[in-house]
Amino acid sequence: MKKIELDETREFLDKGMKRFFLVADSPYLKLINFNLTAGHVFPVHSHDLDGQLTIQVLEGSGAFLGAEKAEIQAKTGDILFSEIREPHGVRADTDMRILVTITPPI
Amino acid sequence: MKKIELDETREFLDKGMKRFFLVADSPYLKLINFNLTAGHVFPVHSHDLDGQLTIQVLEGSGAFLGAEKAEIQAKTGDILFSEIREPHGVRADTDMRILVTITPPI
Predict the structure, then answer these.
(1) Which CATH architecture has domain A18-23+31-103?
(2) Number of Cβ within a 10 Å radius of residue B59
(3) Residue B19: pLDDT over 90
(4) Which pLDDT does position A58 carry in this prediction?
(5) Min Cα separation A16/chain B (Å)
(6) Which of A37, A58, B45, B99 is 20 to 30 Å from B105 by CA-CA measure?
(7) Domain Cupin type-2 spans what residues (chains A, B) (predicted)?
């Protein structure tokens, strides 16, 4: 057992940038905390691999992004559930913290 | 892609009880939101299976529980990372919401 404290990775860089912390990496899953400053866009991307991921909004708001300019509003407590091979991204409208879970880890 | 709104499953039962919602179930992971009222103890348990889980505190405080009466303080933003076969549990000292991620899903 290991405790991870997300409070300890609450660090933002300059406007429009992202800071990230790999908070867990194991044979079954990877957890990454990204802290996006307002205006940052995490570009839509995908990987041609089997598996799934979640993007959970810990703080702030913006949008989950998908294929063909799809946008889904995203606020604290919202989780995007996606296949790894589906296009996915995030836009931060305010300073925004997200927790990404990837399984299996890539 | 599918959006999960944790705001929609913020429901507590009577004192000392737990309410839970399976918010995602897929070949790679299972996500369960448990809402524990103050005083509820999610008993220490384990399963003899390969895999890992995380228990993330969404709201409230209490303790992560482990083997041999181990206790680790748990507050909003804390995550317990554990093997599925390691004993794990939770005690809610206040009303407490947790998000459990299990991979592979069991």
Answers:
(1) Sandwich (2.60)
(2) 16
(3) yes
(4) 98
(5) 24
(6) A58
(7) 35-100
